[in-house]
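The records we work with from here on pair a chain with its fold. Taken together, the tokens spell out the fold as the letters spell out the chain. To see the layout at work, look at the sequence and tokens printed below.
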Amino acid sequence: MYYYFIIALQAYCIYHLFKNRNPYYWVFAILFLPLIGSVIYLITQVYNKRDANKIQENIVSIINPTKRIKDLEKKLQFSETYQNRVNLADAYLENKDFTNAIPHYLDALDDNLQNDFYATKQLIECYFNVEDYNNIILYAEKIKDSSEFLKSKSQFFYGLALEKLGRLEEAETNLKQIDIRYSFYEERFILAKFLLNRDKKEEAKAILDEIYLESQNMTKQNQRIYRNTIAEVEKLKSSL
């Protein structure tokens, strides 16, 4: 049990390091001094009294990923509130259990007293992962007039669903909204491939060139995160 605790502690520290873009040298301290390095990192970079419970929850989640879901299920059984239901659905989504997440988001949307944008966008992501394109379109069209929908992942999923159903002009209009510099690298790569399939080579090439140029100025962290996408961009660019 002690061994798994140390592994979980290291995993949390490294996750926190990359998420918050802390100095890379901490990786060596965490990996080569497992307990001491992790504890020092927590004390100097993470820990304060308000974070204590959150850190404990994250470590427990790494050791036992289903514990959080079971705890949230019990909480929902005790009090069937909108927030408790959405929290449980989010936990299922994070665990890539989309089939169980979907009904909880749908139940949450039945609460007419709540702002339903968040639950709807989460539901759209679930439907995308189970390839239910009709329902993506159904729920995306309920929120597409919201300013939060524009230039979001939800709009991107909507565009891809439209493509799958052969509504190519609408798909292109929505997919192009994600073409924002220094962001959405994977999505823009998919957009470039979409444009190539529509014989719009020059537009696709322009997007690939932009991503490639932006990759030259990425932080080391982003270069690691998007290295596969960048490699695919370079490969496709060289073939045009």
Observations:
- The mean pLDDT is 86.
- The two ends are 54 Å apart (CA to CA).
